[in-house]
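User:
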Amino acid sequence: MNSKEHIFIDGSNLFIEGQRRAAYVATPQADRPSDIQQSSCDLEYRIDLARLHAFLNPGASPPVMVGSRSIQGELFFEMARRAGFDTALLDRNSLNREKAVDMTLAMRAIERAWGNPPSSMRFVLVAGDRDYVPLVTFLRERGFETDVVFWSHAAPELRRAASRFVDLDPHFEYLRWQPPTTLRRFA
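Assistant: Predicted structure:
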């Protein structure tokens, strides 16, 4: 039986860490910090969400993307909606910190898993922080194949918890959004 794939994306995590990865890639090798978490962000980097969707699995149910409200975040999530993602944009707390994204994503994944045999579905998590280890562990303990897809600097604990880890680093340029080129008109 073919499994049905369900994709869950921490949009804020993907967006910010993609910009961090871009800054790292743009830094000459001799000047790169040993820990990518200490590098700055390339605020110009954007992920091509249509390519991300094609890379993950265009035949899967619409990917669920959860994130928090910000000026850049709202534009990113609008592009995600247009690319066919099922999105949930949450408010930040009074300290302008992101809260409830991890929990919302976990609850949506557990809802999908509830009452279904593990042989009927497979989960793909696009996130890199260790807060998702309990979700991945929960799904794996119940027999669901659960892959993690993220940049190479994903939390080692999360990588180990997954059925399989897929590194986005080799696909960095493919996933980079390029603005449409302007066509010249000939008179």
